[in-house]
Design goal:
It contains 5 helices and no strands. It has about 140 residues and is mainly alpha-helical. The protein has one domain.
């Protein structure tokens, strides 16, 4: 744990972070087993949109605690996934003219989905163990 972070987190803040990870995980599961893609469901599904809004609303309550890193992790995961999804799409559209773009888009979004699953799982496991997230 970071020695500069000494304040214990209020119980409600810890519970809220569990809810946020659960909402992100629900968005990923809906994408994996539903009609949408994993990334599409994560970025545009209600569970993840609610999770990112809650992250912004409640991160101030965690300021100065070890949970602050988890709120930042969850917010960063959402926005980085959106940026990479846009980048993969923008690269794949011109390549679709020569058919390769369809494959780059599918593979890119598949890998992005795996990355999002990893980020949510890693964060939630560290939260369960009472450990802060490292930058990244």
């Amino acid at each position: 744990m970071n020695p500069l972070v000494t304040t214990d987190a209020p119980e409600g803040t810890l519970r809220m972070m569990h809810i946020i990870y659960a909402l992100h995980a629900l968005g990923l599961v809906i994408g994996a087993f539903g009609a949408a893609s994993v990334v599409g469901s994560f970025l545009f599904g209600w569970p993840s949109i609610i999770a990112v809004i809650l992250s912004y609303l409640k991160r101030g309550d965690a300021r100065g605690t070890w949970l602050e890193s988890h709120y930042a992790w969850a917010i960063r995961t959402f926005w980085m996934a959106l940026a990479w999804a846009l980048a993969v799409t923008l690269v794949s559209i011109p390549l679709a003219i020569i058919v390769v773009g369809i494959a780059t888009w599918v593979v890119g979004l598949f890998l992005l989905g795996l990355w999002a699953i990893y980020r949510v799982a890693r964060g939630w496991l560290r939260l369960k163990d009472g450990q802060p997230m490292q930058a990244g």
